[in-house]
Amino acid sequence: MSLNKALDRVLGNPVLYVLVGTLLAITVARIYVLLGGAVTLAYNGVYLHHLFYGVIIVVVVGILSFLFNERAFRNEALKRVLALAFGFGLGLIIDESNLLILTGQEYSLSYYYSPYNVAIEFTVVLLLVIGLVVSTVTQTLIIRHRKKR
Predict the structure, then answer these.
(1) Strand 46-48 relative to strand 41-43: parallel, antiparallel, unpaired?
(2) Residues 128/18, Cβ–Cβ less than 8 Å
(3) CA distance 84 to 76
(4) Where in the sequence is the domain holding 22, given as residue range(s)?
(5) Per-residue CA distances from 7 to 20, 78, 136 (Å)
(6) Quick one: 34 exposed, middle or buried, by C-beta within 10 A (0-12, 13-18, 19+)?
(7) What confidence score (pLDDT) does residue 61 get?
(8) pLDDT at residue 24 in the model
(9) Residue 113 contacts by C-beta under 8 Å, 6 or more apart in sequence?
(10) pLDDT at residue 77 in the model
(11) What are the pLDDT digits (tens) for 47-99?
């Protein structure tokens, strides 16, 4: 298989866009918090951190995926946009949820940048990279198998 074909398979793989969206969301959230960003919605003393924004994005992307089911699988651009948006929502969820699991509602930069928090996020990103590799190799094997028939 040529390098161009391999690159096309990787670039066409939606898992790559989920990975990029996840990394983008984690990076944006970390920079925003580091710069002192504190724009959150609150209701009765409960703050809606970016975990909730991530859940909303993932739910909306899921609904859109069902609505555009056939169209999304044929339209590469739409598939990539949905995967990127899903990854962004997933990144927001991952970034906030492991902080809340480790610290509860207490919110400080020392917890936010703790080694445990970073290790959890690194593990999730590593799993996405493994998923990208496995799904690309699987796709290549399926294509080769179909050509042999």
Answers:
(1) antiparallel
(2) yes
(3) 12
(4) 3-148
(5) 16, 20, 10
(6) exposed
(7) 92
(8) 94
(9) 30
(10) 86
(11) 667 888 899 999 999 888 888 777 667 788 888 899 999 999 999 988 887 76
Q: In a 3-state reduction of DSSP, which class is residue 108?
A: coil
Long-range contacts of 94-103 (CB under 8 A, 24+ apart): 94/22, 94/26, 94/54, 94/120, 94/121, 94/124, 95/25, 95/26, 95/29, 95/30, 95/50, 95/51, 95/54, 95/121, 96/29, 96/49, 96/50, 96/51, 96/54, 97/51, 100/49, 100/51
Q: How many CB atoms lie within 10 A of CB 129?
A: 13
pLDDT: which is higher, 104 or 2: 2
Q: What domain count does the chain have?
A: 1
The Cα 70–Cα 40 span in angstroms is: 37
CB count, 10 Å around CB of 63? 10
Q: Give the integer Cα–Cα distance in Å for 68 and 47.
A: 33
Distance CA 37, CA 16 (A): 29
